[in-house]
Amino acid sequence: METAQIKQRAALLSISSNIVLIISKFIVGIITGSVSIISEAVHSFSDLLAAILAYFSVKASAEPADLEHQFGHGKFEDLSGGIEGALILLAAGYIIYEAIEKLLGNVPSEFDTGAGIIVMFVAIVVNLIVSRHLFKVAHKTESIALLADAEHLRTDIYTSAGVLAGLVLIKFTGITLLDPIVAILIALVIIKTGINLCVASAKNLLDTSLPEEERIVIKNIVNKYMPDEVIDILKLKTRKAGAERLIEFTLTVPEEMTIKSGHDLCDRVEEDLAKEINNVNVTIHLEPCDGKCPDCNSYHIDTFVCHKLKNK
């Protein structure tokens, strides 16, 4: 099955599960009057929007490059991840607002916790199954949109567990004030997740370099061709668009290297990079070495025997 289809099916699974949980939580929350259950319904609604965004973003990112997007559509996923993070923050703000309203207003002296306990337990089980599947697909396909969706559902597990614990305590202690307090604690957990997603998305949208460990892998692969075919690697630039890693660099090669030899060298370097780093798009520029570079005496001789000096 193609990667795009795997990602789209995972997103559709998330959409379906969220719809069922939202309806269940809203009905139970309204019946019981529990602000923590209603806050969970709002959180699940933000999960649904995130899942819908994830579905359309992975579908759009799979489209080939065109005249308007000549470098592909990978950043649709990065944009989606940022929007999903913002939705999480908005949901958290609403939860805090509703909880404070309850604390300042009249907290009901008692309410039925039975239905709430059941729906929270079911929500935990469903989200656990779906989120584990989404994480698996997200890591396999390196989809930031699905990763954001999975993070949504994982926070939903934690928050549902918090609501469940609060409802159980209320059932045995009768302290209904715990309900809005639990809702506020849930919101704080959600805020942290939202901030993390926004930061990760912004890094890709702002073309932040690949992690240091991946840049080291690139240099180590090029070093295998030194000094016989490659003399130096210059102007290394890296960034990420969705799941795709974009890598550019210049290779200084012996002056007498033919065009065919240079082309074959680039093919081998690109193949080696593709084996070590997933989803790479490599651009290599070749420059001939004339033996007159200012670093020739200080760098090449200390590091390895310069190709031109070796043959003199």
How would you sum up this structure in a few lines?
This protein has 312 residues and is mainly alpha-helical. 69% of the residues lie in helices and 10% in strands.
Class based on secondary structure composition and strand pairing: mainly alpha
> Which outline best applies?
elongated
Cα(first) to Cα(last) distance is: 56 Å
Parts with pLDDT < 50 across at least 5 consecutive residues: 297-305, 307-312
Q: Which range does the strand content fall in?
A: 5-15%
Q: Name the CATH homologous superfamily of the largest domain.
A: Cation efflux protein transmembrane domain
Number of domains: 2
Percentage of residues in helical conformation:
55-70%
Question: Number of DSSP helices?
Answer: 10
> Gyration radius, to the nearest Å?
27 Å
Commentary on this structure:
This protein is mainly alpha-helical. It has 2 domains: 3-205, Cation efflux protein transmembrane domain (Alpha-lytic protease prodomain-like, Up-down Bundle), CATH 1.20.1510.10; 212-310, Cation efflux protein, cytoplasmic domain (Alpha-Beta Plaits), CATH 3.30.70.1350. The protein is 69% helix and 10% strand. The protein contains 10 helices and 3 strands. Strands 1-2-3 form a 3-stranded mixed β-sheet. A hairpin with a 2-residue loop joins strand 1 (232-241) and strand 2 (244-254). The longest helix has 30 residues, at 3-32. It starts with a helix and ends with a helix. 37% of the residues are buried. The model is unreliable at 297-305 and 307-312 (pLDDT under 50).
